[in-house]
Structure formats: C-alpha cells, structure tokens
Amino acid sequence: MSPDRDPPADLPIVDRDGVDPGVDLEDGPAVAGLLLAAGTSSRFGSENKLLEDVDGEPIVRHAARTLVDSRIDPIVVVLGHEARRVRDALEGLPLEFVVNEAYERGQASSVRTGIRTIRGRTAADAVVVALGDMPFVDPRTVDALVAAYAAGTGDALAAAYEGERGNPVLFDARFFEQLTGVEGDIGGRRILLEDDSSALVAVDDPGVRRDVDVPDDLPR
Prior knowledge:
By secondary structure, the chain is α/β, with parallel strands linked by helices. It contains six helices and ten strands, in the order E-E-E-E-H-E-H-E-H-E-H-E-E-H-H-E.
C-alpha cells in the first residue's frame, strides 16, 4: 500500500471540504489505527530506515504521531525487523504492539497480523492503515478519511494529493476477512482498486505521497 507507480485508478475523488471535518468519534464510527513498521528496509542499505532521524526524531515516531494526533483509537503497531529497537523508538506514545514473526514474507503478512490483532482487541467499524516509513503525513488527513467514511463516501478510502493516490488508507470492517488473506507486498491495494465502494479523498497534504525508500528520500 505504499505510494506506487500503478496507472491512475479510475476512482471517484471527493474533496475533504465536502465532508464534515468535525466528526465526533464518540457518536460516530469506531475507527482503529494500524501502523506497519515491520519491514527490513532492504532498499535503504545497511541501516534501518525507520530509525533514521528527521527533525530530531526517528521516522517511525513521526509516522506514529500522525495517528496519535488524529481522532482514531486504539492504534496497533506491527513490529518485525529489529522489533526491540523500533519499539524503543516509540516509547511513551499511547500505542499497542504486536510482532509479525513472518515479516520477511512481505507487507501483506504485517497487514494480516495487524488486522487479526485489531479484531481480537476491539469491535472496530473500520481501520486506517498507515506506513511506518511515511513521516510527513498530516494528522488532519487521517481525520479527513474518517470524516469521509462517516459521511458515507465509501468503504475503502485512500488519501490523494493532486489526483495521485497515496496513504494512509481506510478499510471498513467488512474487508477485514479479505485483508487477512492478502499475499506478498500488495497489501490491501487490490481491494481498493477493485471494490465498487472505493474512493479517493483529496487532501492538501503532499506527505501522503512521500515515503522514505532510499537515503536520497530523506530531507536534506
């Protein structure tokens, strides 16, 4: 579910200004957060990119703060590669953790682990899936996805910037069973691209298209 080079999806685009940004989650849908932070950083080199410093904090901590500072709860972090070091980088934040022992099998294995954990811990109506290597996403983008979902915009929603699909992505609970069956590195992308209830939520947030894949992706 990372920002990709797929052909543009023929999905309807909804401007976040067209939905109520002040959704009260106490009366609205129960939306959990899932942060994928288990990868091996194989393209980054010998270092774990999630622990690289950006503005004084590790990349993964920035990504976690995006969810913490939004209105979703609870937030589950899937650990894997160097699990102890990544967890230490997140110390003090209100997060729940689970380790994906099969993290080397690809992102989908972490999606499965996270969704199963969320299903076992909370009766969530939906989940926002975010990536640990995307430190520049605005928390208001997460709230925009939740607001669009609460307004009935769709059951599978992705943030989009200037018409380009990005992350995070929201999935209704009806997809949880499918998400536990995905394989490889595709994650939930196929659901998003193929389901009739999918839509893009336009946000003024270039961070939804900025991941850190190689050292040159780090701000200079």
